[in-house]
Amino acid sequence: MNDAMQRRLAFHGAAVILLGLLAGFPYAMVVTGDLAGTERAWRMAHMEGVTNGLLIFGVAALLPALRLGDGGRRALAGCLLFTAYANTVASILGASTGNRGLAIGGEFANTVVFLLFTVAIVTIFVAVGLVIQGSRGRATN
Predict the structure, then answer these.
(1) Residue 2: pLDDT band by 50, 70, 90 thresholds?
(2) Quick one: angle between helices 39-62 and 2-32, nearest 10?
(3) Over 90: is that where the pLDDT of 97 sits?
(4) What global pTM score does this model have?
(5) At what angle do helices 70-97 and 108-136 cross, to 10 degrees?
(6) Biggest alpha carbon distance in the chain?
(7) Which structural domain range is residue 36 located in?
(8) pLDDT tens digit string along 42-90?
(9) Into how many domains does the chain fold?
(10) Is residue 141 part of a domain?
(11) How far is CA 11 from CA 53, 76, 80, 100, in A?
């Protein structure tokens, strides 16, 4: 189970990093003035993918040391993957549409960005809680 889960996390970590790297192209174009947009938003989109992918790599490396049952490992992986993709997609969508997603409402894209970021906040707290629990206690399901 650990090996398969680690491979799955490594694959998705690399995919999320790739999304972040691809977001670096419009970021560079905004910096050079070749594309209209907000430099801050595109920098965030670029960095969200890279940092969230690296977080997945880090947890994948720790997975064998965590005392979590199969259910806990699946929950951890699911929370990490949702968090990473949601943060990255929300950042790219926000930068593309000029929405920050700070409150629900307004344009549809703004509401999507808000909801993705909001749920990602919950899932990252669950994931970190599972890492803490798995680092300290007995196996859980």
Answers:
(1) confident
(2) 160
(3) yes
(4) 0.92
(5) 150
(6) 55
(7) 2-136
(8) 999 999 999 999 999 999 999 999 999 999 999 999 999 999 999 999 9
(9) 1
(10) no
(11) 10, 16, 13, 29
Is 92 within a domain?
A: yes
Compute the average pLDDT of residues 105-120: 96
Tokens, residue 74: 């699946």
Q: How open is the CA angle 114-17-41, to the nearest 5 degrees?
A: 40
Output the DSSP codes for the chain: -HHHHHHHHHHHHHHHHHHHHHHHHHHHHHHHTSS-S-HHHHHHHHHHHHHHHHHHHHHHHHGGGS---HHHHHHHHHHHHHHHHHHHHHHHHHHHHT---SSS-SSHHHHHHHHHHHHHHHHHHHHHHHHHHHHHS----
- Both tokens assigned to 95: 């930068």
Cβ-based neighbours of 111, under 8 Å, separated by 6 or more = 101, 104, 105
- Stretch 25-41: mean pLDDT: 96
